[in-house]
Q: What sequence folds into this?
């Protein structure tokens, strides 16, 4: 595994130092970069009598700032806006006044990187957000992501780089003064590699509000790169509360190289519900992703997915993604 970069661990701020970001200013220890992710696709969901539509999956702009403080220290920050809701407003005829139909703030945080330790606070993803091996372009007939939530407005995020192991800890403060409500969450994610095997261990405890029962999720993931193919497997289990009977999810992935700039992902997702009498649901997907050799941040993709849930037809999507 490449040396882990702590800024990257905290919501991808390392884009300021990568080829995937446009550097707008770089002088006197300050680097200001702009990162974009625009994906538009035609999609027909898995289900009954679904119709094909144009969908805006990602329409994002990320402002990234990094200050070199000397002695191996970096101050960083990110301001991340999404425009998907605005693009979707007319397409899906949103009427819910609680939905922001304009540009919306997805992440806003600042932090310090000391080399082997980094800290950030603000609006950002939880540490558990990067858990798992699933490579589907879209979620399927149920929420296969076992964590109750994966982002918050009042988050403290810590990362520890031990060369071959990265430990991330995040905590969402139970504040009812922000848009996230009074949810509280503590997440731990351990990522590492040994002898060519990449592994993860994840733990989360989440409560929707101070009066709600805590929901605990635990998971493990492992993958192995064979050269022309990469195999991965993850297992996660979420216990239940008064309104949720729990869920166990198993993901299997085979990612196969198809030339120098293309790959095929084949995956199976097993969802086992702990509710009495509930049937398990098995979902499968195959997608093909092609990066143009001259511009690898321009990608074409197609996906076919299916489910053994009753009264569902196969789903399809195809689209174009531009990143910088």
A:
């Amino acid at each position: 595994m490449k040396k882990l970069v702590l800024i990257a661990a905290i919501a991808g701020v390392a884009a300021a130092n990568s080829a995937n970001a446009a550097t707008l200013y770089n002088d006197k220890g300050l680097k200001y970069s702009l990162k974009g992710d625009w994906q538009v696709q035609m999609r027909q969901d898995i289900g009954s009598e679904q119709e094909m539509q144009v969908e805006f999956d990602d329409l994002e702009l990320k402002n990234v700032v990094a200050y070199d403080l000397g002695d191996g220290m970096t101050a960083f920050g990110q301001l991340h806006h999404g425009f998907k809701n605005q693009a979707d407003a007319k397409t899906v005829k949103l009427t819910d006044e609680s939905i922001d139909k304009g540009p919306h703030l997805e992440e806003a945080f600042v932090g310090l990187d000391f080399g082997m330790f980094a800290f950030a606070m603000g609006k950002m993803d939880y540490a558990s957000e990067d858990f798992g091996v699933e490579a589907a372009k879209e979620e399927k007939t149920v929420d296969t992501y076992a964590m109750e939530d994966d982002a918050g407005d009042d988050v403290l995020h810590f990362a520890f780089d031990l060369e071959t192991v990265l430990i991330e800890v995040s905590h969402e403060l139970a504040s009812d003064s922000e848009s996230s409500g009074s949810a509280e969450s503590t997440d731990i994610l351990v990522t590492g590699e040994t002898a060519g095997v990449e592994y993860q261990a994840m733990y989360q405890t989440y409560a929707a509000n101070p009066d709600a029962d805590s929901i605990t999720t635990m998971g493990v993931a492992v993958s192995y790169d064979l050269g022309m193919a990469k195999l991965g497997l993850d297992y996660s289990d979420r216990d239940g509360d008064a309104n949720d009977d729990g869920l166990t999810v198993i993901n299997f992935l085979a990612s196969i190289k198809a030339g120098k700039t293309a790959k095929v992902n084949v995956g199976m997702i097993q969802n086992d519900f702990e509710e009495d009498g509930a049937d398990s649901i098995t979902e499968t997907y195959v997608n093909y992703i092609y990066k143009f050799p001259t511009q690898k941040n321009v990608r074409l993709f197609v996906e076919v997915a299916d489910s053994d849930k009753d009264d569902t037809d196969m789903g399809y999507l195809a689209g174009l993604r531009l990143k910088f």
About this structure: The mean pLDDT is 85. The helical segments are 6-9, 84-92.
